[in-house]
Specification:
By secondary structure, the chain is α+β, with helices and mostly antiparallel strands. About 45% of the residues lie in helices and about 25% in strands. The radius of gyration is 19 Å and the shape is elongated.
């Protein structure tokens, strides 16, 4: 597999075709000064992997979880970092260009971001279909 984003973890639970894997951050992330910017907080998190082979895994088993395609990581970065920045800055400067004062421009930007994140929430099922993880048993 040529997926670039991989995490080692432990199977926490199994239900039907879903395997929930508890993932700890990599040791390189622990000492990184930029981990709060990339979304890595140094905390344990869970990844839900939908697979028809769920029954082949056991609770407590060590596994590797990876994105199915490299493109999925890029899609995630665009939706979570690039588009919000473009919207925030675009609305801020757009409001200022139309003569709004700083306070109104800032409030407009925050309102636009609120709408963006509500939209993301409403599109979460689309992202579940688009961004898929695969799971591999460790030897």
């Amino acid at each position: 597999m040529s997926a670039s984003l991989q995490h080692k973890g432990v199977v926490e639970s199994i239900a039907n075709d879903r395997v929930i894997v508890s993932v700890m951050p990599e040791s390189a992330c622990a000492g990184c000064h930029a981990k709060s910017v990339c979304g890595e907080r140094g905390e344990k998190r869970e990844i839900v992997v939908v697979t028809p082979y769920a029954k082949e895994f056991a609770i407590g088993e060590r596994v590797t979880v990876a994105l199915e395609h490299n493109r999925m990581g890029l899609i995630s970065v665009v939706w979570s970092y690039v588009l919000p920045l473009v919207i925030l800055v675009g609305v801020l400067f757009g409001a200022r260009a139309f003569g709004a004062n700083d306070g109104v421009a800032a409030l407009s930007s925050m309102a636009a971001m609120s709408l963006y994140y509500v939209g993301l929430y409403l599109m979460r099922k689309m992202f579940d279909k688009q961004i898929k993880f695969t799971i591999i048993k460790e030897l």
